[in-house]
TrEMBL record:
Gene3D superfamilies: NAD(P)-binding Rossmann-like Domain
GO-annotated molecular function: oxidoreductase activity
Thylakoid is among the record's keywords: no
Positions in coiled-coil regions: none
Pfam families: adh_short_C2
Organism: Thermoflexus hugenholtzii JAD2
Domain of life: Bacteria
Family to which this protein belongs: Belongs to the short-chain dehydrogenases/reductases (SDR) family.
PANTHER family found in the cross-reference section: DEHYDROGENASE/REDUCTASE (SDR FAMILY) MEMBER 4, DEHYDROGENASE_REDUCTASE 4
Alphabetized UniProt keyword annotations: Oxidoreductase
Protein name: NAD(P)-dependent dehydrogenase, short-chain alcohol dehydrogenase family
């Protein structure tokens, strides 16, 4: 099966590094015009260069997904540059709190919900009118295995990701008549800056690897390959689904 995304326009949030960068590259390699977003333009510039060097088309539009005005501007700039939006990959997330859930403070709750949950909702809200007018679209939300089962120490984050999964299912239902498919990927531990504490602290890393049947951490490309399929026409009959990419970690008890 060849995935051809020529003539399609994609927005990827959190595209300056890690999983978002790998997804943006994979979409560009399949021919999509990719709008890369994150908070800081200087973080996006090298990824734009990388994609252009591969012969792809990419544009950087910085936006903080916690702010509606910036999210709306991101969608407006995309339409201005490329005339449409076929694909939204909601990927930008944060985790300001590790530790027991009741030890978090309200500021940490607000930050995590603003970005991880409302940020995905804001992006969908801004993009759906464009997709509706086109008569089709794909939204892919990057969730986490921490949103499927409790991961002690990562309670706020897990709750925000459980919210992302419910948001995915609700939007899938609500947007099916508009021919917009909404799916989620729930990664396990993928080697990025975000999860560095988990894979670079020897005691934690060893425990996770013991609990992972495949005996390795994931790489951003492990997620990107599935993302490419889910936003492509090959997945037109798939909506409201949540795919785990974790080397089997959640079969043995997850991060608990
Ligand atoms: N790595 C894992 O093990 C793992 C596991 C499960 C799920 N995930 C999920 O996968 C996604 C990507 O994570 P990652 O590991 O690739 O993280 P990462 O390497 O830390 O990248 C995070 C990206 O998000 C951007 N970002 C952060 N806050 C933002 C905001 N408020 N507005 C816009 N952009 C923002 C960052 O760029 P700037 O700093 O320039 O804004 C960066 O591009 C997240 O949804 C994460 O929850 C990761």
């Amino acid at each position: 099966m060849r995935i051809d995304l020529r003539e399609q326009v994609a927005i990827v949030t959190g595209a300056s590094r890690g999983i978002g960068r790998a997804i943006a590259r994979a979409l560009a390699e399949a021919g999509a015009k990719v709008v890369l977003s994150s908070r800081r333009a200087e973080n996006l510039a090298p990824v734009v260069e990388e994609i252009r060097a591969l012969g792809g088309e990419a544009l950087a539009v910085p936006a903080h997904t916690g702010r509606m005005a910036e999210v709306e501007r991101l969608v407006e700039e995309t339409v201005k540059a490329f005339g449409r939006v076929d694909i939204l990959v909601n990927n930008a997330a944060t985790n300001p709190h590790f530790g027991p859930t009741l030890e978090a403070d309200e500021g940490q709750w607000q930050k995590i919900l603003e970005v991880n949950l409302l940020g995905y909702w804001r992006m969908a809200k801004a993009v759906v009118p464009v997709m509706r007018a086109q008569g089709r679209g794909k939204i892919l939300n990057i969730a986490s295995v921490a949103g499927l089962r409790p991961s002690p120490g990562m309670g706020l984050y897990g709750i925000s990701k459980a919210g992302v999964i419910m948001l995915t299912q609700l939007l899938a239902l609500e947007l099916a008549p508009d021919r917009i498919q909404v799916n989620a990927i729930a990664p396990g531990v993928i080697r990025t800056r975000f999860s560095e504490l988990l894979w670079s602290t020897p005691e934690i890393a060893e425990r996770i690897l013991r609990a992972t049947p495949q005996g390795r951490f994931g790489e951003p490309e492990d997620v990107a390959r599935l993302a490419l399929f889910l936003v492509s026409p090959a997945a037109d009959f798939i909506t409201g689904a949540v795919y785990v990419v974790d080397g089997g970690l959640s079969l043995t008890g997850g991060l608990a």
